[in-house]
Every structure is written in structure tokens, then in C-alpha cells.
Amino acid sequence: MTVVVPSLPGLPPTLPGAGRRLLLIHNPTAGFRRPGFLRRTVQALRDSGCRLELRETAARGDAERFAREAADVDAVVAAGGDGTVNEVVNGLGARPAPLPLGVIPLGTANVLAGELGLPERPAALAALLATGPVRLIHPGRAGGRFFTMMAGAGLDAAVVERVNPRLKRLTGKGAYVVETLGQLLAGPRPVYTVTVEDAAGGVERVRAASCIVAKGHFYGGRFVLAPQADLERPQLHACLFECGGRAAALAYSAGMVLGLLERLPGFRVLPAVRVGIDGPAGEPVQGDGDVIARLPVEIALAPSGLPVIAPPPPAR
Ligand SMILES: Nc1ncnc2c1ncn2[C@@H]1O[C@H](COP(=O)(O)OP(=O)(O)OP(=O)(O)O)[C@@H](O)[C@H]1O
């Protein structure tokens, strides 16, 4: 049996529907919060007749290299958090020919897995990776690095850069809340100049306390930041937080958690094909929850799509 990939430019027309050869890249420092999940998924993959090659990362950068160098496989599966997935995406993006991405989510937020609607049970996830269809998503690029879900500068990038890894291990998302409060207490934050270019060539320049460029509509887990954002559309959404100061930052955070962000003053979402962010040189730019660039940065669409093993998109 074969699974037909609907006419994706530059892609092989089919992915084997059985006996797939998968390179599984595992970050052993991720996933302690989901003990047994990887083991059960791997067992189910083996039971389904997949041929698995397992590679464990020993340091940051390994996952990207393993994906870039993958040979004689039908797809590359990232087993880790969003940071590991991001590395694999960058490795796949550097290959001359596209190779599909699969994901075994083992991290804290697993935002891409949520956006793709991946099954949450090991057996169902393994069945998807073993025989499921491929969708073409359109990653973004910040500086020279690809991202699938979001990239941006401001408070959240500062939090991502400084979050305490030990606290993250212990408390998961709680560590981000602690670091956010720490950043707010630390004193005034910079203001950024954001240049947003839309598909018609229109340009708007604004001053903002934070800017998050969304490719997917989820953020920080399952919070909705840009309702119109869609992985499969070659379009960015610039989410602008124009009001500065602690009170505004707290209001924006609460607004996101409560789903009321769109009603808050100074929050705007602009469709875009290119976003430039300028501010203090060297400030961090986060992509998919890790620091992937420094200011000033230009954020645009990746030159080509990325095939991903995933269920058909849910109706929204
Ligand atoms: N063997 C390794 N040792 C140390 N760091 C690694 C290793 N493998 C990958 N990394 C790096 O660890 C970072 C965090 O990984 P990842 O995001 O996958 O897990 P996590 O932090 O548990 O999940 P989440 O991002 O969802 O919180 C990534 O930047 C990745 O590059």
C-alpha cells in the first residue's frame, strides 16, 4: 500500500504506506515528564514493521546535524521538545531534497505537536508515523534559522533566554511564569521598531514593547495568539504588543491565558510576508521556544515548504 502525497513540488510522490524506514533523533535531556512515552511509541513502531534507526543527541546541534546527514530513510522523526524539533527542521531545511518530518513530542509545551493535531497516545502516534499521510507546512525564517510555530523579540524572548533550566525541569511551564515576573521586576524594557510588509507590498512601521511573528495559531502550549495563522499557508502574522510597562505586560499575559487578547488596547495582528525587528543590538530573538537569532533581525517565509507526517488539518 502507498500513501499518495498530493502533488507537492519537489517531493517524491509517495511515502511507503508500510515498512517505512525512519531515522529517530532523540534528545535524552527532554521527556522526563513523559516517562515511558518514547519507549511505548518505539515499541509500537517496531511492531508495525517500521525499520528504525535510533540516534541520541549528546549536545545542542547534534539533532540538526543528524537530520542534515540522514541517508537511506523515508522520514526523520524528532523525539524531544520544541527545541529538538526546531533543530531537526533546520537540518532538514539544509538538505538539497526534502525529507518528511515526524514528531514524538516529549517536551514541556509541544506547541507544534498541538498545532498539527498529533495523537496523544503512543499506539496512535506510532500508527500515524508508520503509515500516515504527509502535509506540506510552510516554515518561517528568522535571520538564517527556520522556525515552524513562532519567532519574535521582546519579553518572551528575554524569558526564553533566561529561564532557569533546573526550575523548568522541576516545574515545567511554571519556570516561565517565574522568569516573566523576574523580567518585569528587573526594570524598564526596551522598545522595538517593527517593520511589517504585507503581500501587496504595503509597509507599516510601528513601535512595540514586544513582537511575536506567528506561523501557527497556538502559542506557549494551547493559547491562541493569532487565530488566522495557519501552518499550511505561506503567510506570517505579526502580533504586536504596542503598550509598554509592567501593567500592560501583565494584562497581555492574562489576556492571552483568558482568550481576551484581541480586546486589549495596543494588541494588533497584521498579516505579513516579511517582518523586520530593530532594537538594542544583540537582544535575543526566540524561535519555537529557543534563542535562534539576535537583533536586528528580518523574519520571512522559508523558501520552500516542509513535508510533515500528520493527520489532516482539523477544521477551524
Ligand atoms: N543531549 C543534549 N544535551 C543537552 N542539550 C541538548 C541535547 N540535545 C538537544 N539539546 C538542546 O536542548 C534544548 C532543549 O531541548 P528541547 O526543547 O527539545 O527539550 P525541553 O526543553 O525539555 O522541551 P521544551 O522546549 O518543550 O521545554 C534544545 O535547545 C536542544 O538543542
Overview of the molecule:
By secondary structure, the protein is α+β, with helices and mostly antiparallel strands. It folds into two domains: 131 residues, Probable inorganic polyphosphate/atp-NAD kinase, domain 1 (Rossmann fold, 3-Layer(aba) Sandwich), CATH 3.40.50; 157 residues, Tumour Suppressor Smad4, CATH 2.60.200.40. The protein has nine helices and 22 strands. The strands form six sheets. A six-stranded antiparallel β-sheet has the order 9-8-21-18-11-12. A six-stranded antiparallel β-sheet has the order 17-16-13-10-19-20. Strand 19 and strand 20 form a beta hairpin. Helix 1 crosses helix 5. The longest helix has 13 residues. It is globular and about 55 Å long. The N terminus is likely disordered. Adenosine-5'-triphosphate binds next to helix 2 and helix 3. This is DAGKc domain-containing protein. One of its GO terms (molecular function) is kinase activity. InterPro entries: ATP-NAD_kinase_N (IPR017438), Diacylglycerol_kinase_cat_dom (IPR001206), Lipid_Phosphate_FormReg (IPR050187), NAD/diacylglycerol_kinase_sf (IPR016064), YegS/DAGK_C (IPR045540). Keywords: ATP-binding, Kinase, Nucleotide-binding, Transferase. Pfam families: DAGK_cat, YegS_C.
